[in-house]
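Researcher: Please predict.
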Amino acid sequence: LGGFERSRPAELSGGMRQRVAFMRTLLPGRPVLLLDEPFASLDSITRASMQGWLADTLAAEPRTVLLVTHDVEEALFLSDRVAVLLPRPGRVLEELQVALPRPRDRRAAVTDPELARLRRRAMEVLGA
């Protein structure tokens, strides 16, 4: 955000606005964060960049995060545990353990056989 300190929100890109929103959430030092579809409005390139930024930020300042997302890859990349939910009534169909070392490299994650297996399982559970 360097160079944009005096900019109005409307003058910031979607990714910049999202970083500001995350910083507002992180600064009070809350031990638990609830992130509900935080990247849904971003294009795929900005989304990937923001996912990496969030992962790095949480590595530097660890917190418990409850991330709500419809993006299976996003859930697997950012999480240690993924609860696959049934929409109505909301209930956990299955919990997947993501036992991959951190930091996670997004490019390497694309070809990681364990992430591929977890993705297939999540999609099976979802009926997709």
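Model: The chain has a mean pLDDT of 87.
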